[in-house]
Amino acid sequence: MKSYEVNFDGLVGPTHNYGGLSYGNVASQSNSQQSSNPKEAALQGLAKMKALMEMGFQQGVLAPQERPDVAALRRLGFAGSDAQVIERAAKDAMPLLVASCSASSMWVANAATVSPSADTADGRVHFTAANLNCKYHRSIEHPTTSRVLGAMFADQQHFAHHAALPAVAQFGDEGAANHTRFCRDYGQAGVEFFVFGRSAFDTRYPAPQKYPARQTLEASQAVARLHGLSDDGVVYAQQNPSVIDQGVFHNDVIAVGNGEVLFYHEDAFLETDKMLAELDAKLGKRGGNFQSICVPRSQVTVEDAVRSYLFNSQLLSRADGSMLLIVPEECRGNERVWQYLQGLTSSGGLIREVKVFDLKQSMQNGGGPACLRLRVALNQTELAAVNPGVIMTAPLYGTLTQWVDKHYRDRLSENDLADPQLLLECRTALDELTQILKLGAVYPFQIN
């Protein structure tokens, strides 16, 4: 039976703004308080989805969150009508209002960790929504994320959903941004690669000194247990604390993998040789031929990688066995990174082509091509069981672009977030979106 890796891209929400909320994310902080363009951001993301669909890749879409999150503000003591809650938060605690308006759910690489049926004990595809406990503005996402994923992957015969891990620092979980799967074929048993920044309980593991390590070893181990993964199908690796302190807040800022290939920076991990040997041995037992591409620091520095988001790319397998790398425009704008990529693709190696996309609106807020997509490996039967409303087609692309043009603003500043009308605009848009994507009632305003 044929199997696929389906990329479900996050649809940028109507409140896309540069709140500078993510300490440790250089781009997020450096562009704080600038005016954003939600309409352009959403259309840029949709253009990437359409392009990959037209290249023959399976492509889906994942709906955004309801923002502003008025319910979250009520839990923090703001009362009255929805409009009064927003007005009082703007007056008394503007940072909380900004956090409640964050559209960072568009980076669905953080939405969940996904294990395909070929790896799990019960033969179902497993989803665990990420608690995103490190940042308040993201920690409020997982209840809606769980409902949306449940509406997309509803057939319990094929799909299993787990609640987010306990919302405490010891189980900080950032989803697939720190998870990669290696396999010979998407439908065959593979090796799941969990990268963590620190251990919550074992002091033998070093920790970064400047920026927080968001993913814990204990969270990764818990997800593997929930998904029923076997020990011989899992590898755990620690991210290099020094690169976290240079702005590598997730592994997908310094490495990307797909199929049998890991593309990574020389400074990405601790105990790299040991890790590579374990991946090679475990994938070999499952019929795979593990291969790695190391980008040397002498050609691309960690700073170059962070500024260009070279590794926050999509590594895609093509029918002829070669690989395509999807990178943001910022890679072409960095002389050293672009020179490296030109040499990489001309060498006749595994990665034969690089395609560049303009994702400036997302990039300025700290997320590139890899951040915008959640990968789900599915066989034909499982793909047929997915809610068809979320699978990208030419008609759906046309409908969604019209929907964005109708509902999104082309400029949003921090002051605009205090406008109660923005909440009404967002709810109107999302109510229509759930009908377009056939999701049913997934947002709090539709349920309560």
Automatic annotation (TrEMBL):
Binding site for substrate: 19-28, 110, 137-138, 214, 252, 365
Pathway in which this enzyme or protein is active: Amino-acid degradation; L-arginine degradation via AST pathway; L-glutamate and succinate from L-arginine: step 2/5
GO biological process: L-arginine catabolic process to L-glutamate; L-arginine catabolic process to succinate
Pfam families (alphabetical): AstB
Keywords: Arginine metabolism, Hydrolase
Signal peptide: none
Catalytic activity, reaction form: N(2)-succinyl-L-arginine + 2 H2O + 2 H(+) = N(2)-succinyl-L-ornithine + 2 NH4(+) + CO2
InterPro entries referenced in this protein's UniProt entry, alphabetically: AstB_sf, SuccinylArg_d-Hdrlase_AstB
Catalytic residues of the enzyme: E174, H250, C371
Entry keyword Hydrolase: yes
Molecular function in Gene Ontology: N-succinylarginine dihydrolase activity
Assigned EC number: 3.5.3.23
Quaternary data: Homodimer.
Family listed: Belongs to the succinylarginine dihydrolase family.
Function: Catalyzes the hydrolysis of N(2)-succinylarginine into N(2)-succinylornithine, ammonia and CO(2).
Identification of the protein by name: N-succinylarginine dihydrolase
Organism per entry: Pseudomonas chlororaphis
